[in-house]
Amino acid sequence: EAGVTQFPSHSVIEKGQTVTLRCDPISGHDNLYWYRRVMGKEIKFLLHFVKESKQDESGMPNNRFLAERTGGTYSTLKVQPAELEDSGVYFCASSYRAEADGYTFGSGTRLTVV
Amino acid sequence: GDSVTQMEGPVTLSEEAFLTINCTYTATGYPSLFWYVQYPGEGLQLLLKATKADDKGSNKGFEATYRKETTSFHLEKGSVQVSDSAVYFCALGTGGSYIPTFGRGTSLIVHP
């Protein structure tokens, strides 16, 4: 079974530019989550999709962040325009039955805004 | 709200030493508890879990027991190896959507 795939693995952009991160969940996993970890801090929840619908986006920091999940398959997270404080590692995770099986995480995208 | 507190790192040990990484939590309801591990250059992997009080999760020589009375889920291993060097995250999941709440992570460095 293929795991959760994220790309790019690294991205360095200048402040004010736009970046789009992509996540391909495990096939059949209706639940898809985005998280972010700023250096040395907690992994913070950003949002949760169930299929193509946003179930919970309470963790999205502001309207510079836009997440989509086309047809309930892969998801994108766009940051526009990027700010310095957006730097961190963005993780995607998917699950089928989270409470029983936990979550499968991707290896993350390390975003550096300079 | 729900929260997870982990001991500060890095934890530095010699090979074959005993490991404890403390984790305590606050949560409404009855959470499931997880330990995730992130090896260098890789994503988070579920290491072990426990879904109710007094359950013990175990995997790869690591163990953690769900202690409701002390709201703790400490991670232990009797003899660590260099290959255990990684960042370990304690997490809990509650509610219908079971969105996990993570701790800050504890870096473990094991020297030969």
Can you give a write-up of this model?
- The complex is a heterodimer of chains A (114) and B (112).
- Chain A has 114 residues and is mostly beta strands.
- Chain A is 4% helix and 50% strand.
- In chain A, the strands form 2 sheets. In chain A, strands 2, 4, 5, 6, 9, 10 and 11 form a 7-stranded mixed β-sheet that branches. Chain A has a 4-stranded antiparallel β-sheet with strand order 1-3-8-7, with no helix packed on it.
- The mean pLDDT of chain A is 92.
- Helices cover 0% and strands 53% of the residues of chain B.
- The chains are: A mainly beta (114), B mainly beta (112).
- The interface between A and B is medium-sized, with 29 and 23 residues.
Please sum up the structure shown:
Chain A is mainly β and 114 residues long. Chain A is 4% helix and 50% strand. Chain A is globular.
Oligomer: heterodimer
Radius of gyration of chain A: 13 Å
Give the helix tally of chain A.
1
As a percent range, the share of strand residues of chain B is over 45%
Mean pLDDT of chain A: 92
Structural class of the helices, strands and pairings of chain B? mainly beta
Helix content of chain A: under 10%
Number of helices of chain B: 0
* Biggest sheet features of chain A: 7 strands, mixed
Number of strands of chain B: 12
Strand and helix order of chain B: EEEEEEEEEEEE
Rg of chain B, nearest Å: 13 Å
Structural class of chain A: mainly beta
- Low-confidence parts of chain A: none
Mean pLDDT of chain B: 92
Beta-strand residue fraction of chain A: over 45%
H/E element order of chain A: EEEEEEEEEHEE
